[in-house]
Design brief:
Blueprint: H1 2-23, H2 27-47, H3 51-76, H4 80-83, H5 90-109, E1 126-127, E2 135-136, E3 140-144, E4 147-148, E5 155-158, H6 161-165, E6 167-171, E7 176-181, E8 194-202, E9 208-218, H7 225-235, H8 237-257
Length: 262
């Protein structure tokens, strides 16, 4: 419960700081708000147990990247006259409307689909649970599946789980699913490997609903400094170097724009 509270607090602060970044007239104020937004995002990463990303967010973005931004802003040295007055053009109104639409869609997409509470009874038998969480290799994942409609009580089963998924899995008749993925020494890049679970629910009248759940397998080393560094400088070395060129382009662009002042 506390994690959810802090998640929403940091998320709301980050959203407010992001809005201030684009709404502030003074670029220095926008830069300070962006630093605050980065710290809020680092807090979100901490709540999500991604401590490495939180540290990188502070050191790289709130530190090194923002130093470059401040350098460019100070190099341009724009006065109040050059900034001009704020004018609400049709482009700004369209941008604000598009942002509102994206926000509404994002809120709708993140709403639960009945995984936590059963839906109202009635109608055809169906599984309310639509997705399963990931399972860490070598650890156990437990979740209560939910059904609605049909004629309760429901009986749950999972067809030949052991031979099908190569893992230790069992399903109780009341819908309690427990799965343990086999811990292998093979190299996993994160969520590339998945388990396929064929789950069946039967009501009192014999009606059935079947669903195949895809459960991502997370390697125990996924997200660690060694794992992230290995992927960054081995598998994604070229994209990493290409992205670094953006900083060089930003510096050259700032120098060209401020050339008349040099």
């Amino acid at each position: 419960m506390a994690e959810q509270i802090f998640f929403w607090i940091f998320g709301a602060l980050a959203l407010g700081a992001g809005i201030f970044v684009v709404a502030a007239r003074n670029p220095i104020h926008s830069a300070v708000a962006l630093v605050f937004c980065f710290f809020c995002l680092a807090g979100v990463f901490v709540v999500l147990q991604a401590h490495f990303l939180a540290a990188i967010q502070v050191m790289v973005y709130a530190g090194a990247i923002m130093v470059l931004f401040i350098f460019v802003i100070m190099l341009l040295n724009l006065s109040d006259e050059e900034l001009g007055k704020t004018k609400w053009t049709i482009t700004k109104w369209l941008g604000m409307a598009a942002a509102c639409v994206v926000g509404v869609v994002a809120v709708w997409a993140t709403q639960p689909r009945g995984d936590d509470e059963p839906a109202a009874p009635g109608g055809a038998l169906r599984m309310v649970t639509e997705r399963l969480p990931s399972v860490v290799a070598g650890e156990e994942m437990s979740i209560k599946l939910i059904a609605a409609g049909g004629a309760p009580p429901y009986t749950w089963s999972m067809v030949d789980a052991s031979s099908m998924i190569g893992a230790g899995g069992r399903m109780t008749p009341d819908g309690q699913l427990k799965v343990t993925a086999v811990k292998k020494e093979s190299k996993l890049d994160g969520l590339d490997s998945k388990l396929a679970l064929h789950v069946t629910v039967t009501d009192a009248k014999g009606a059935r609903a079947v669903r195949v759940f895809s459960v991502p397998i997370v390697h125990p080393s996924f997200g660690t400094t060694a794992k992230v560094g290995g992927l960054l400088f081995e598998k994604y070395a070229y994209p990493f170097e290409i992205v670094s060129l953006l900083l060089l382009v930003a510096i050259v662009g700032a120098v060209v724009m401020a050339k008349k002042r040099i």
